[in-house]
Amino acid sequence: MLDQSRSAISTLLDERREGHSLPAGLYTREDVYEADLDVFFRKHWIFIGPECDVPEPGDASVIDVAGSSLIMLRDDDGEVRVFHNVCRHRGARILDEGTSVVSKLVCPYHQWTYELTGELAYAPHMGRDFDKTCNSLKPVNFRNIGGLIHVCLSDDPPADIDALEAVGRDRLLPYDLKNTRVAFTQDVIEHGNWKLTIENNRECYHCAANHPELCVSYIDLDFGFDPESLSPEDRERAARHEALYARQIVAWEAEGYPSAAIEHLSKTESNFRTQRLIISGAGESQTPDARAAVAKLTGIGRKDLGDTHLWGHNSWHHFMGDHIIVAAVIPLGPDKTLLRMKWLVNKDAVEGMDYDLHNLTSVWVATNEEDAALVGRSHAGVSDPAYVPGMYSPFTEKQLDWFAGWYVDRMRAHGY
């Protein structure tokens, strides 16, 4: 049966046409979903949360993904660590999902007790010959990318994470995520395949018709356009905008703020893109009026540096002067995906004094709910017998074409 399933998946991969969306089965089949978990959520680097989820020694956060439960914590020396949430005795879960504060990690089943560094400290009634040193918690490969915690559940993680780490060092560290806190978390269940969630995020072809809140701070020309469809006036506007971007990137980089696009989107193991974007209108933040929502700025200390966006194959993030948005995509089934978004602010910012929570969050809360409806519509459509893969716009959806090609390449690399 396993060989038959691999053969069926391989046939679907063969059917994918460049410039077109994926065959239906790659979105809808249970065996494809299981293969996706194995390839993209166990063998590639994935984002699980920001460093500020565990701000103080003893703070712990449990994240469930791809069948694994992970404990992210900060130890007594202030170092972030990630362990499998599996007791070395008989496998019981040590902590429940969510956040907690602990002095040690104590399994509630038989009281096996671990230090925050993972070493087994206490195992009652195991005899004098029992070797505690062989029963530490299993660590998880992780990297702190500018305050964003990425893990790989494989013992052979992709080495090109170094490229993303360099981006984090140069572009994200100035925002000082270690000294932020989570002001708000929104969990949205999207009734669609995880790839549809990612595809929806990677294009703004749909934004003007569906995201009035976001379009206050987004510039439509940034997301591609067909020049032949523009009026002479709009072509002139587009030319002015492209010239402005070129000047702005030069100016930002002259001040020491890397801004130009970096794209690792094909022929690579770790899929990511980053660029500093100009914010429209008041130019400060992704808020209802495009002005900063938080009086106490993030570590970068300025609100005129646009929006440093970064996306990976299970995440997207926006770094602005007043706040930071981080989002993780976690598959729950072939047709169900968890989107977890967090708004980060300066750790000293006080709600009601330095910011209004609704003003801070309303744009992306609305956008996420609108996108969830669109992803649900998309999944219903690809599940319909009438669906055939459609052509991507070469002007506004080229990122989707690259993602689909990368997806097929990575599946092939893992034997499908």
Task: Tell me what you see in this structure.
By secondary structure, the protein is an alpha+beta fold. It has a domain at 160-413: Alpha-Beta Complex (Naphthalene 1,2-dioxygenase Alpha Subunit, Chain A, domain 1), CATH 3.90.380. It is 28% helix and 23% strand. It has helices at residues 2-15, 25-28, 30-40, 161-172, 194-201, 207-210, 232-254, 357-382, 398-413, and strands at 46-50, 59-65, 68-74, 80-84, 98-101, 105-106, 113-114, 120-122, 141-145, 148-152, 180-190, 262-264, 272-277, 307-312, 315-319, 324-333, 336-346. The strands form 4 sheets. The protein has a 7-stranded antiparallel β-sheet, with helices on both faces. Strands 4-3-2-5 form a 4-stranded antiparallel β-sheet, with no helix packed on it. Strands 1-10-9 form a 3-stranded antiparallel β-sheet. Strand 12 (262-264) and strand 13 (272-277) form a beta hairpin. Helix 5 packs across helix 8 (357-382).
Give a quick summary of the entry.
With 416 residues, the protein is an alpha+beta fold. The chain contains nine helices and 17 strands. The protein has a domain at 160-413: Naphthalene 1,2-dioxygenase Alpha Subunit, Chain A, domain 1 (Alpha-Beta Complex).
